[in-house]
């Protein structure tokens, strides 16, 4: 698979390129926004990794150009800008993920693989699926095993997040910021309560359990092996 990296810091760019190549990817690295946009729109890539602050044009403008061209490849922002407003802006412009520097390469690689696995299925789609669970994004409807399941708006948002990042362990802080638009407070149990209620609806009456707690880390939705 082929990845475009747009990063103006020489050391960071070389580190990313080398790590991704060692992981088995073909990588093109450019160091300014104009070249990044040109390659993104003229070559075929499975994923783009963009810094925000770049010479020429910034990462936001590259993303806008990619989406205006009708290109729906996954885009991951990798940047030192860690404000909520920046993350929201990136997602609203059509980014698929946002990772703040400094980062662990293992986390970056996990996110890259997740985005590539989702591939066209996640974007094509009006539907997100895991095993016999199906979420209809347009009709805001959830089915499991042919049975309609009624969720609240927050439960639907939580399930959508878990399905979009299927296989990833999501920390409580990320879930709180994405679903409730709030900073995580260790004294509140709002995330735990919501996950418990969601499980009661989508897992308790079914043999295959999809939502799992990873102690000390967070929650993950995944289909067990052999299910």
Brief descriptors of the model:
227 residues, alpha/beta, Rossmann fold, 2 domains, four-stranded antiparallel β-sheet
What would you say about this model in short?
The chain has 227 residues and is of the alpha/beta class. 42% of the residues lie in helices and 20% in strands. The chain folds into 2 domains: 2-120, Response regulator (Rossmann fold, 3-Layer(aba) Sandwich), CATH 3.40.50; 125-221, Arc Repressor Mutant, subunit A, CATH 1.10.10.
Beta-strand segment tally:
11
End-to-end separation: 28 Å
Strand order of the largest sheet: 2-1-3-4-5
For the biggest sheet, the summary is:
5 strands, parallel
Looking at the structure, the CATH topology of the largest domain is: Rossmann fold
In total, the number of domains comes to: 2
Shape: elongated
Question: Which structural category do the helix and sheet elements fall into?
Answer: alpha/beta
Summed up, the helix count is 8
Q: Could you list the spans in which at least 5 consecutive residues all have pLDDT below 50? A: 120-124
Explain this structure:
Residues 120-124 have low confidence and may be disordered. Helix 4 (84-93) links the parallel strand 4 (75-79) and strand 5 (97-100). The protein has helices at residues 10-22, 33-42, 59-68, 84-93, 105-123, 153-164, 172-179, 190-202, and strands spanning 2-6, 26-30, 47-50, 75-79, 97-100, 127-130, 133-136, 141-144, 147-149, 211-214, 218-221. It is elongated, with a radius of gyration of 18 Å. Helix 2 packs parallel to helix 3. It starts with a strand and ends in a 6-residue tail after the last strand. The protein is built from eight helices and eleven strands. Strands 2-1-3-4-5 form a five-stranded parallel beta sheet, sandwiched between helices. A four-stranded antiparallel beta sheet has the order 6-7-8-9, covered by helices on one side. It has a two-stranded antiparallel ribbon with strand order 10-11. The chain is an alpha/beta fold and 227 residues long. It folds into two domains: 2-120, Rossmann fold (3-Layer(aba) Sandwich), CATH 3.40.50.2300; 125-221, Arc Repressor Mutant, subunit A.
């Amino acid at each position: 698979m082929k990845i475009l990296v747009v990063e103006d810091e020489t050391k960071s760019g070389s580190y990313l390129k080398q790590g991704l190549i060692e992981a088995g990817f073909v990588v093109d690295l450019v160091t300014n926004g104009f070249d990044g946009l040109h390659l993104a729109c003229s070559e075929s890539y499975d994923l783009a990794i963009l810094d925000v602050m770049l010479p020429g044009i910034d990462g936001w403008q590259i993303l806008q150009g990619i989406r205006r061209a009708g290109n729906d490849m996954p885009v991951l922002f990798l940047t030192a800008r860690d404000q909520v407003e920046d993350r929201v802006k990136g997602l609203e412009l059509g980014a698929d993920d946002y990772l703040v520097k400094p980062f662990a390469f293992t986390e970056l690689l996990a996110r890259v693989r997740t985005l590539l696995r989702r591939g066209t299925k996640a974007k094509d789609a009006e539907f997100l699926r895991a095993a016999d669970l199906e979420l209809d994004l347009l009709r805001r409807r959830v089915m499991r095993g042919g049975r309609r399941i009624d969720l609240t708006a927050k439960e639907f948002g939580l399930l959508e997040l878990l399905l979009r990042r299927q296989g990833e362990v999501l920390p409580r802080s990320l879930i709180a910021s994405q679903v409730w638009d709030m900073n995580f407070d260790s004294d509140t149990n709002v995330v735990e309560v919501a996950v418990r209620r969601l499980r009661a609806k989508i897992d308790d009456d079914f043999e295959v359990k999809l939502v799992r707690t990873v102690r000390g880390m967070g929650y993950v939705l995944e289909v067990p092996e052999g299910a």
